[in-house]
Amino acid sequence: MKKNHFRSRHLILFAKAPRLGRVKTRLAKDIGVLSARRFYCQETASCLQRLQPGKQRGGQGAGGRWKGALFLASPHPKRLRNVWPLSSRWAIKRQKGQDLGERMVRALAGAPPGPVVLVGTDIPAMDVTHIQKAFAALEQGASWVFGPAEDGGFWLIGARRVMGKGRYRSLSPRLFRSLPWSTEQVLALTTDRLQQKGEKIMLLTCLADIDDGQDFERFRTTLTRLSGDATFSKAF
Length: 236
Fold this sequence. Notes:
alpha/beta, Spore Coat Polysaccharide Biosynthesis Protein SpsA, Chain A, two-stranded parallel sheet, 7 helices, 11 strands, 19% strand, disordered N terminus
C-alpha cells in the first residue's frame, strides 16, 4: 500500500534554461544580469536538492515520497542535465504551450494518475515540509491547493484531478486565460474562477519569492542573520 501511495504523487518543478539575460529579468534590472543568473542557478540547484524525490520520510533534504519531474523552458531540455547536480530520480521534460498558464495546465494534466503539485525554483523558504502538506491537503479532499506569495501570486499550485467526461475537470487552459501575470491579482482571480465552479481550495503558508532587488536584499539579510556571518550572503 505504501509503495502505491508513493507512486501516486507527482511533483513538477518549472525552470528555465539559465541563459544570461533571460532569467530573473526583473531582478537583473536591480542587481545586474550576472548576479541574477548566479542567484537563479544556485537557488535552482538548492531547490532540486531540497525536494529530491525518494521514499524517505523526514525533514528538509531527506527526500520526498513522490515522483519528480523537472520541466524546462528549453527546446532541448535533456541537454541541460549537467547544468545542475540532478539525481537520476528527476525526470527531465520540456514545457509546452504558448504562455505560462497553458504550460502549467499541460504539465498538470499530463502527469500520471494521482495528485500533482507544481512549483517554481525561486522560493528560498520552500522545503519538503511544504510539499508534504500540499499533497496531504489534496489527499484529504481539497480539489486544489495553492501556496500564496507575498506579492499576490502563488508559489505552488496542486490539483487532485477529478476525472469527468474523459478529461480532468477544471484543468483547462481557460483557467489561466487573460490573467494579469506578475500582478497582485493573480491568486485572487485564479481561486475565484475555481470557487465559481464549486472547487474546494486549500491555502498553504504565504512565502516570499525573489523577483526584484528589494526581495533580494531581504533574502540576503535573512541569510546573514541565520548564519551570523555577513560574508555568508556574499555567495549570492
